[in-house]
Amino acid sequence: MSSQPTTPLDSDIDSSPLLLPAKVLRSDAEALQAARELAELAREQAARRDQQRKLPWAEIEQFTRSGLGSISIPKAYGGPQVSFETTAEVFRLISAADPALGQIPQNHFGILQLVRLTATEAQKQAIFGSVLDGWRIGNAGPERGTKDTLTLKARITREGDSYRISGEKFYSTGALYAHWVAVKALDDDGRQRLAFVRRGSPGLRIVDDWSGFGQRTTASGTVLLDQVPVDAELVLDNWRQRDVPNIQGASSQLVQAAIDAGIAEAAINDTIRFVREKSRPWIDANVERASDDPYVIADIGRLKLDLHAAEALLRKAARVLDEVDAGPIDAAAAARASIAVAEAKVLTTEIALQASEKLFELAGSRASLAEFNLDRHWRNARVHTLHDPVRWKYHAVGAYYLNGTLPARHSWI
């Protein structure tokens, strides 16, 4: 790319983050190993980062340097193009260590799918090439104060051979850490466009004002755009995705489900550890250890079974995506992928919430002490699962099997 990001001052979050050389992974096995290594690093201080709202800069830079940021780039453009099954497992592994770290690149991957679907050949070469070089993509799509999450007020206006964008975004996960800020805006004809704005562009401001009680270090706050210039070759016809059946929404939802599965695993593991090491048995159990309480044993068994069921559906959904992606995608194939992911998303959502809530019942009142910060599991599960209501997943699945109704086509199904 012609414009290289620079290292920002700590007090200047509108400048670009450090651009470091990134490895290019060559296989699914390498991607999984890189994810395991990152998870091991991230787990060490995850609870403290959550308590202090300390942003995981070192960890996200390790994510990029390791080559994980480019694992979905097609082989034709120099990437490894790992399977969806591997992608889901990468996000599950990282999120079991730190789900905020898992969520930060969530939109990076979703946007790469949009590039694959709607970009011109020249745009693919430029954007995929930058990601292989270590550029990160952040999200500036959703807005507050609109009718729904699909409604936009931001505008992109033609100005000679380039464009200018104005608007205000929120829930901008990844933008603070990004070299590219991918902005959705309506053009003069009312069509949605996707513009890749370089960090440091005049008129672009990123505000770290995310105050959610969960996923605290995702920095999913505000992006302000005031007549921000953007090159015409970096503006995609995002509206075209509506015209053809695709798996963009399903692939995005698969990552969401993997993050929730990771949260559930971490909550169950911490429950088991606490019960074994710190909990006292209930007096009526007449046992020496809390881990010998028959009701606790039964509940742990149920949690593990539910987790394994969710993980199995997650893997099944990923394999369906791989199958659909390998052939021509028609409306029926796209629906099959969306329904498979919706089924997984229901179970990963429910086990994440159930496990993080059940933790306190099984571990006892001592587990509620701030020094352990175990409430982070429930807070993270509750906030992350708000992205898309499970009640509509049930509806989509039921309508599909009962009446043959194909699900809606957008990023949340």
Automatic annotation (TrEMBL):
- Gene Ontology annotations for the cellular component aspect, listed alphabetically: cytoplasm
The UniProt record lists the Acyl-CoA dehydrogenase C-terminal domain at 254-388
Which keywords has UniProt assigned to this entry? Oxidoreductase
InterPro entries, alphabetically?
Acyl-CoA_dehydrogenase, Acyl-CoA_DH_C, Acyl-CoA_Oxase/DH_mid-dom_sf, AcylCo_DH-like_C, AcylCoA_DH/ox_N, AcylCoA_DH/ox_N_sf, AcylCoA_DH/oxidase_NM_dom_sf, S04_starv_induced_SfnB
One MF term in GO for this entry? acyl-CoA dehydrogenase activity
Acyl-CoA dehydrogenase/oxidase N-terminal domain: from which residue to which, for each copy?
33-133
Example of a GO biological process term: fatty acid beta-oxidation using acyl-CoA dehydrogenase
EC number from the UniProt entry: 1.-.-.-
Pfam assignment, any one: Acyl-CoA_dh_2
The family classification in the record reads: Belongs to the HpaH/HsaA monooxygenase family.
* Name used for this protein in its record: SfnB family sulfur acquisition oxidoreductase
Source species of the chain: Pseudomonas mosselii
